[in-house]
Amino acid sequence: MNSAVLLAEENKQLRIKNQRQKKKRAKRRSYIATGGVLTVQEGLDLSQIADEGLQGRVASPEVTVKTRAPRTCSMCKSLSHTARTCPTKQVSN
Ligand SMILES: [Zn+2]
């Protein structure tokens, strides 16, 4: 009888802990969603908003909209690879 009461109490505590962990996990996930990972539709929407913003700001249509610079290696500035695959990095390792 007594152990049943203890088990019930322990069960209650575990449920509370579990709820807290679930909340924590949900928070972390939503943070990632807003901070980094976007769905395709969200990405398209954001890029469209950015495009509209640029068009509004640019006074004359002759002004070329600056596109993103091509990926270069930050180690040796080569266009053929990135710093992640840079041969100089691999040599130093
Ligand atoms: Zn390199």
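^ zinc ion complex. The pocket of zinc ion is lined by residues 73, 75-76, 78, 81, 86, 88 (CB under 6 Å). The chain is about 60% helix and 0% strand.
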